[in-house]
Write a structure and sequence with these properties.
The chain has a single domain, classed as Response regulator (Rossmann fold). The chain has five helices and four strands; from the N terminus they run βαβααβαβα. Helix 1 crosses helix 5. It catalyses: a phosphate monoester + H2O = an alcohol + phosphate; O-phospho-L-tyrosyl-[protein] + H2O = L-tyrosyl-[protein] + phosphate. Acts on tyrosine phosphorylated proteins, low-MW aryl phosphates and natural and synthetic acyl phosphates.
């Protein structure tokens, strides 16, 4: 559609989804498509609302020349009604989102795993929170592959 909208979602909204959001935003900007996309990320839970992304996520993005000012927020009913795509990171996200969307009248969002778009077929983007820098780098690379493929499909 002319104004495609996208939301990127994961559990706490401080590790994976801010990386995915920042990556997608940069891709859209590089392709000069900012006017066609609204990109955001949100959490399924309310654990980290108002918090900045994990410092390791920020470092990882910075190493790739990407800045983000994102603060965690929880997904809302309106998100399901306004976004075309809600992309999540793993099966528990998917279950929670589908459950929430069932409680929303006129949900228009297509809810999918971001990993569905990975040309390398890594379906799940694992939470790097308990891992190390290398795990954040893996998440970054997965997000780049998936977001590129997603953008190609819907551009």
């Amino acid at each position: 559609s002319e104004n495609s909208l996208e939301s990127l979602v994961s559990i706490g909204n401080i590790c994976r989804s801010p990386i995915a959001e920042a990556v997608f935003r940069k891709l859209v900007t590089d392709e000069k498509l900012e006017h066609k996309w609204r990109t955001d990320s949100a959490a399924v839970s309310d654990w980290n609302v108002g918090r900045f992304p994990d410092s390791r996520a920020l470092n990882c993005l910075r190493n790739h020349g990407i800045e983000t000012a994102h603060k965690a927020r929880q997904i809302t009913k309106e998100d399901f009604q306004t976004f075309d795509h809600i992309l999540c990171m793993d099966e528990s996200n998917l279950r929670d989102l589908n459950r929430k969307s069932n409680q929303v009248k006129d949900c228009k969002a297509k809810i999918e795993l971001l990993g569905t778009y990975d040309p390398q077929k890594q379906l799940i983007i694992e939470d790097p929170y308990y891992g190390n820098e290398k795990d954040f780098e893996t998440v970054y690379e997965q997000c780049v592959r998936c977001c590129k493929a997603f953008l190609e499909k819907y551009h």
